[in-house]
Amino acid sequence: MLKLVLRDKLVWLLLGLGAAMLGIGRWVLPIDQALLIVSRGGYWLMLGNVVLFGWALWRLSKSLLLDWKPARADFGAAALILGCCVMWAAHERHGFKILADEELLLGTSMGIHYDREIGYPARASDVTGPLQLNLKVLDKRPYFFPFVVATVHDLTGYRPGNAFWVNTALGAVFLSLVYVLGWQLARSRWAGALLVLLFAGLPLAAQQSAGGGFELLNLVMISTLLLLARRYARAPDEAALDALCLGAVLLAFTRYESVLFIVPVGTLVLWGWWRAGRVVLTWPVVLTPVFLFPYVLQNRVFAANPATWELGSIKGADQVFALHYVPDNLGHALAFFFDRSGYQANSIYFAALGLAALPFLLLLVVRTLRQSRDATTDSADVGSAFVVLGLFGLAALLMTYFWGQFDHPVIRRLSLPVHLLLGLAIVVVGASFLRTARGWQLAIAGAVAALVFQGLPMMAQRAYEWDYTPGVEMAWRDEFLKKFPARDYLFIDQDSTFWITQRMPATPIKQAGERKEGLAYHLRNHSFSAMYVFQRFTVNDQTGALTIDPADDIGPDFELEPVMQKRVATLHLARISRITAIHDKGAIVARAGLAPAANGPALTGEELEKAKAQYLEKWIRQLP
To answer: Is 620 a residue whose pLDDT tops 90?
Structure first.
C-alpha cells in the first residue's frame, strides 16, 4: 500500500501544497501582509470551500433523499425535535450571551456583507448618507460562522438579529443530527430520542440557541463530520472523500481548537485507502491546503499581539497550555457538571450518565480501531471511532488550557463538545447493556425527569445569565436603543462595535479621548443630534461614592449629563451620559444645544456646493 501512495502524483502534489502553504504562511510572509491576505482574500476561499462542500453533500445524499419515504417514527422524531426547539425559544431570549466574542462575530459578518472583507468595524460614520466602516480590524476568531451569518444578510438584508436566528436554526439542525447519530451508533431510534432529550434539558445548549456565538455551528460540524466519517469508512469513494475532507476544513474555521480534527480525518482517509486497496484522491481534496491557508495566516494574530491570548484573565497564568493546569481544571469541570445552585447551565443527569460511560467508550474505541482489519468489525464504527478519538483529544487539550475552568461564565460554553462526547458515550456504551427497548425507555424517562425538575426551572430563572455582568450591560444597551430609536447620534463606548452593528456612528473611548479636537468640531457643527458615552462605575459600600472604571474615563474636559443608569451587579453601575460641552485649557470650545439663528446673505448654489465639499473634507479629518 505504501508503494501505491508514494507513486501517486496527486499525493505528492497534496503534500507539496501543504508544505508550501505552511511554510509561506508561518515563516515567509511578513505578519502585516499575511493578515491583509486573510482580510482581502479569506471570503473568496471560504466561498469556494462551501460551494464544493455543498456539491459533495448533494452528490452523497441525492439518491437517499429521492428514495426516502418517511415512516411514522420519522414524524415522531420530528415532533420531538420541534417541541424541544419551541421549549428553548420560550425560555431563552435572543441576545448576546458572551462578550466580546459574539459582538465581534456579528461585526465580522457585517464587514463581510458590506465590503467582502474579513474584519469587524471599530469606527463608523454616516457623513455621506449610508454607514461607512472607517476602520476594520481582523479578529483572532475563525470566520466560518460570520460567513454563514453574512450569507443570511446577503439573502434577507442586514439585520443584527440574523445571528440569533441562525443559531435558532442551528439548534434544530443539531438536535436532528444527534438523533441520527444516536440511532446509527446504538442501532435504536430510542437512543436517538434519548440524545435529543439530554441536550434539550441542557440549559447551556438552550442558551446558545438564542445567542450570537459559534458554539452550535461547531457542534453541527462535529456531528456532521461523524456521520460523514461513517459514510466514508463504509464506502471510501470520491464523493464521500470530498465531503469528509472539505467538512473537516470548514470545522477548522469554526472554532480555534477544532483544527485538531484534521488529524483523525487524515488518518481515516489513509485507512480508507488501505481498505479500498487503492489511492482515492480528488482535486477538491488536493486543494484543501489552499483552503486552510487563511487559517495559518490568521493564526499569526497571536504573534502580532500576544495580548490576544488573554493570559492576564487568570492570575498566575504564565503559559497558554500546560499540564499543571489539569488538576485545577478537572476540579472546575466537576464543579460545573454537578452544581445545584442554578448559576451553572448544567445537567446533573447528563453529566452523571456520561462520565460513568466515558471510560468504557474509550475502551470500545481502542478495541474497534485494533480490530479494524477484522471482517466482523462494522467499518462505519471504525469511521466514527477516529472522530471520537478526536473528541477525546479535544477534551484533553481543554484540560491543559490556562483558562479551562468550565464553571467560569465565559468558559462554560467550551464544555459543549465535551457534552457531545458524553452523549456519544451514553448511547454507545448503553447499546452494549440495553438489549431491549425497555432499557432505553427507562433512560428516556430519567432524561424527561431531569428536564422537568432541573432543566426547565433553571431555564425559567436564567440565573446563569444574570450572573454574567457584560451580558446584563449588553441587554441594557438594547433597552437604550428602544428608548432612543432615531440612531442619528454618535456613541462613545469601549464596545463601539455593538453600536456599529446597529448601524450607528460610533468610536472607542480611547480614540475619542485622543481626538478631543475632532469631537469639539462635530459638537460645534451639530454633526450628530447628540453624543453619548457609556461608562461603568463601582460603588463604595461605606460612602456610596462612585469610582469610574479607568478604561471608561473620557477625561475631565468633557461635561456629561447622565441620561440612564442601571445596577448591573452588586456594587456595579452602568451609566449612559450625553456630552453637553467640551473644554480646552479651561475654556468651553463647544457646547451642545440648538444654535441661535443669524441673519446674513444667502449663499449662491456654487458657493453652497463649495462649502459642502470643504465641510465634508474637514468632517472626515476630524472624525474621532
So the answer is: no
- Name residue 522's beta-bridge partners: none
Residue recorded with cell 441536550: 199
Omega before 100 cis (within 30°)?
yes
Q: Model pTM greater than 0.90?
A: yes
Residue pointed to by grid coordinates 441525492:
62
- What is the C-alpha separation between 123 and 145, in angstroms, rounded? 22
Q: List strand residue ranges (DSSP E) for 556-600, in order.
A: 558-569, 572-584, 587-591
**pLDDT over threshold 60, residue 595:** no
- Give the residue from 275, 278, 280 showing the smallest Cα distance to 240: 280
Residues 289, 17: contact at Cβ < 8 Å? yes
Ramachandran area for residue 545 (φ above 0: left; ψ -120 to 50: alpha; else beta): beta
Distance from C-alpha of 407 to C-alpha of 290, rounded to nearest angstrom: 38
For the chain, the structural domain boundaries read 82-91+182-211+319-467, 478-593+603-621
Residue 540, SS3? coil
Beta bridge partners of 491: 506, 532
Angle among Cα 197, 53, 19 to the nearest 5 degrees reads: 115
Q: Are 233 and 378 in contact (CB under 8 A)?
A: no
Output 528 or 2, whichever has higher pLDDT: 528
DSSP designation for 467? T
Rg of the chain over CA atoms, in angstroms?
Answer: 27
How far apart are alpha carbons 56 and 138 in whole angstroms? 30
Output the average pLDDT for the chain: 93
**Alpha-carbon gap, residue 350 to 367, rounded angstroms:** 25
Least confidently predicted of 35-44, 143-152, 312-321: 312-321
- Which H or E run contains 534? strand 531-539
Cα angle 457, 460, 464 (rounded to 5 degrees) comes to 90
Name the CA dihedral angle for 35, 39, 41, 43, rounded to a multiple of 10 degrees.
130
pLDDT higher than threshold 70 for residue 1? no
Q: Which residues contact 311 (CB under 8 A, 6 or more apart)?
A: 317, 318, 320, 402
